[in-house]
Amino acid sequence: MEGKVVLKVEGLNKSFGPTKAVVDMHLEIHPGEIHGLIGENGSGKSTVTSMIAGCLKPDSGVMIMNGKRHEPKSMLEGRASGICMLLQEKGTINHLTISENIYLGEENQFSKGGIVNRRRMNQAARKVLESIDLGHVEPSHLIDELSFEDRKLVEAGMAMKEDPKILIVDETTTALSQKGREVLYRIMSQMKEKEKSVIFISHDLDELKQVCDRVTVMRDGAYITTLSGEEITVDAMRHHMIGRDFSDG
Ligand code: ADP
Ligand code: MG
């Protein structure tokens, strides 16, 4: 896989009014890697990944995916090109059942003559639930009945169902228990096994050290460095994030 790149970001800029959120950012994502993205609060991580996912339009700069210009105009277009994003906030819809959430907009595949076969839809949803260790959960129940954590996992299952090329995990683990985190780590390693990639945003440096193949550090909207393998230590990450040796005081 040496030298191969699934996504390349070059000279990316994004401002919100006077705030320069992302400045001349570059980033390369390899197939089959878990790529950490770190930086202090407000350093531009979510803005970069939102542009990659199609939720935000860059002011300038280029994104290349598998050798072609990547210019998604919406999250839907981002998804169509193989990018799925898990957000920190709630990504599922209240007052719908779990299976309705999982197959929202895709009910057609279970319908005949305009009538959705709920039994088949629930059966398919059960498979998704099993993949995230929620096989005991009844897909015909309202999503509202699930805990925040289980809803996050459902969202992860929904993303995996799309067979994404790149999965973006933006601080999802922060709100999860160890058990929930482990389901997410398993999903991330499944991505790797399939030679797919994960962009993983987290504040937990120990967690990053354990799961990431490479880690890119941002500061003030800009690219600082990319660490790989043995270079990924808690001290090195912290040092690059704050821009000086933290032991200097
Ligand atoms: P991070 O994810 O690293 O915490 P963000 O990308 O969310 O950082 O934010 C980068 C900067 O852009 C911050 O100064 C933030 O306040 C600002 N920002 C982000 N989104 C918006 C927005 N929608 N409107 C105005 N400012 C924003
Ligand atoms: Mg963020």
From TrEMBL:
Please list the residue ranges annotated as the ABC transporter domain. Answer: 7-245
| UniProt-recorded name of the protein | Sugar ABC transporter ATP-binding protein
Q: Which residues of the full protein are shown?
A: 1 to 249 of 501
Q: Which domain of life is it from?
A: Bacteria
> What are the record keywords, sorted?
ATP-binding, Nucleotide-binding, Repeat, Transport
What species does this protein belong to?
A: Diplocloster modestus
Single Gene Ontology MF annotation: ATP binding
